[in-house]
Amino acid sequence: EEYKIDINKRNVFINDKEIKLTTLEFNLLNIFINNLGKVFSRDEILSLVWGDDYFGSDRATDDLVRRLRKKMPKLNINTIYGYGYRLS
Questions:
Q1: 1 band by pLDDT with thresholds 50, 70 and 90
Q2: Could you give phi then psi for residue 56, rounded to 5 degrees?
Q3: What's the mean pLDDT in 11-16?
Q4: C or N terminus of the chain, fewer CB within 10 Å?
Q5: Per-residue DSSP letter, 75
Q6: What is the distance between the alpha carbons of residues 39 and 29, in angstroms, rounded to a whole number?
Q7: Predicted TM-score (pTM) of this structure
Q8: End-to-end C-alpha distance for the chain, whole angstroms
Q9: Beta strand extents in the chain (DSSP E only)
Q10: In a 3-state reduction of DSSP, which class is residue 88?
């Protein structure tokens, strides 16, 4: 069983069951899918997902990754300790 992702409709399914993602979660997923194997720093993710005008903790990135992992446990999101994340 694998995820079926419709980028245009912004839907994610597994076994014909929809996984409800927030806009930010879907944006993060989309970034990872389009850049398989690329390592993103927390700051890069903040900028790409929230925009350059976001002023807050880079821990927001960790929280977003944690939520995405919880909803999509079969995704292989690697933590690059002290730096950021990548999807492999």
A1: confident
A2: -170, -170
A3: 95
A4: N
A5: S
A6: 14
A7: 0.93
A8: 17
A9: 3-6, 11-14, 17-18, 40-41, 77-80, 84-87
A10: coil
